[in-house]
């Protein structure tokens, strides 16, 4: 069962009388990687959380092509600052599988495999909270991917990482894309957006300001604001 297209109609989230995001209309067809860009406070994190069902919708609708229960099992989320269990790396990796009823031996095998894939093979017995920021982010990524969801949300997954860790994470994301996983990620890193994006959702003041193919967005942005943003100017 496929989750796409994802249809968003009049989606809005309001906190204490203030509109944080919306109203948003958006159709995502599952084109590979959707990169959400925009200035600080434009609503990228809130939009990702809304699409994932982790933020409350005040008005409007967000509908996956499949039924809601199934859609929920087919999504992973990587936060900007990873949340670790106070257990070993291996146990952190096994956890989502064990929650889904995978047997211990099988879960351990898959956990080792994924640890290897993200370059944590030597750290499997380390307590996860003692990992460096970059290592924690790799662990968070592997833990979100280990159940092989159809859709993976990532909120600025490499914001605090150096060039090398960023490249390593991007390599995993490219492999994920090649395997057919759909990525919906926010980033402030223009280079990263260009390397990963198939399409771009440009947010401004809580609204979708522009939604186009990566090529059109980077080569010929439609709006003044997107052009200014791409130049690195302040966008208001
Ligand atoms: N829990 C909350 N309560 C009240 N306001 C919030 C909350 N979360 C976000 N906001 C507000 O909603 C707006 C959108 O925030 P959001 O975090 O989605 O932006 P963003 O584009 O992800 O920004 P950044 O680039 O800084 O990560 C901002 O004005 C922010 O202050
Ligand atoms: Mg954010």
From TrEMBL:
InterPro entries: AAA+_ATPase, ABC_SmlMolc_Importer, ABC_transporter-like_ATP-bd, ABC_transporter-like_CS, P-loop_NTPase
SMART domains xref list: AAA
UniProt xrefs under SUPFAM superfamilies: P-loop containing nucleoside triphosphate hydrolases (SSF52540)
Source organism superkingdom: Bacteria
GO MF annotation terms: ATP binding; ATP hydrolysis activity
Keywords, in A-Z order: ATP-binding, Nucleotide-binding, Plasmid, Transport
Pfam families: ABC_tran
Coiled-coil intervals: none
Residue ranges of domain ABC transporter in the record: 6-230
PANTHER family membership: AMINO ACID ABC TRANSPORTER, ATP-BINDING PROTEIN-RELATED (PTHR42781:SF9), SPERMIDINE/PUTRESCINE IMPORT ATP-BINDING PROTEIN POTA (PTHR42781)
Name this protein carries in UniProt: Phosphate ABC transporter ATP-binding protein (PhoT family)
Gene label: tupC
């Amino acid at each position: 069962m496929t989750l796409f297209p994802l249809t968003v109609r009049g989606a809005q989230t309001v906190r204490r009388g203030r509109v944080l995001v919306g109203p948003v209309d958006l159709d995502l067809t599952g084109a590979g990687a959707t990169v959400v860009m925009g200035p600080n406070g434009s609503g990228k994190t809130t939009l990702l959380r809304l699409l994932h069902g982790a933020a409350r919708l005040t008005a409007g609708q967000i509908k996956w092509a499949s039924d809601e229960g199934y859609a929920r099992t087919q999504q992973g989320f990587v936060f900007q600052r990873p949340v670790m269990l106070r257990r070993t790396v291996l146990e952190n990796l096994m956890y989502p599988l064990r929650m889904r009823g995978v047997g211990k031996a099988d879960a351990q095998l898959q956990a080792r495999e994924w640890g290897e894939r993200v370059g944590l093979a030597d750290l499997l017995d380390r307590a996860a909270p003692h990992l460096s920021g970059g290592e924690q982010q790799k662990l968070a990524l592997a833990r979100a991917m280990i159940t092989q969801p159809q859709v993976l949300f990532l909120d600025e997954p490499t914001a605090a990482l150096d060039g090398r860790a960023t490249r390593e994470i991007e390599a995993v994301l490219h492999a994920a894309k090649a395997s057919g996983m759909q990525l919906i990620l926010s980033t402030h890193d223009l280079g990263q957006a260009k390397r990963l994006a198939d399409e771009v959702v440009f947010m401004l003041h809580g609204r979708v300001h522009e939604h186009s193919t990566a090529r059109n967005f980077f080569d010929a942005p439609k709006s003044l604001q997107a052009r200014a943003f791409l130049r690195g100017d302040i966008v208001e």
